Amino acid sequence: MAGGHIRNAGLVYVCLLAILMLVGLGSRLVALPMAFTMLVAIATAKWAQLEGGAVDLLTTFLGFEEWSYIVMFLTIALIGAGPVSLDHLIKRRLERPEAPLPRPILQPVTHG
User: Fold this and answer.
1) What percent of the chain has pLDDT over 90?
2) Mean pLDDT over all residues of the chain?
3) In a domain, 93, yes or no
């Protein structure tokens, strides 16, 4: 029964990382575990093709379409998520100097 809990925890982990990646929060940090997860997923799903009669393990591995996901995650880890991500919006907000308060439209009436 413990195996079911481990699978559920793994599913929650991957879903959480995917949601963070989708909204662009912590993208560089999230991309590395996602790339590693894809590496393990490819090795697990394609193990028969990797060990059974493959001429070259690396060439066979790089021939899978899923390899592009690892490249994508490593690219995001290196260059970041881009201008539409929450990371970018937070960075822009933190770098902006505190804007002065706007002047009131209506000036107070002084009697004097």
Assistant:
1) 28
2) 80
3) no
Cα 4 to Cα 17, 34, 37, 77: the distances in Å are: 20, 21, 18, 31
Residue 5: inside a domain: no
Helical H runs in the chain?
A: 2-23, 27-45, 47-51, 57-62, 67-79, 86-95
Q: Which domain holds residue 60?
A: 22-79
- Structural domains counted in the chain: 1
First CA to last CA distance, the chain: 84
Question: Rounded to an integer, what distance in angstroms lies between the CA atom of residue 107 and that of residue 29?
Answer: 50
Look up residue 28 and give its two tokens: 């560089």
Q: Does 100 map to a domain?
A: no
Cα radius of gyration rounded to whole Å, the chain: 24
Residue-wise pLDDT for 39-81, tens only, equals: 888 878 877 766 665 556 666 667 777 888 899 999 999 998 8
Q: Per the domain annotation, does 102 fall within a domain?
A: no
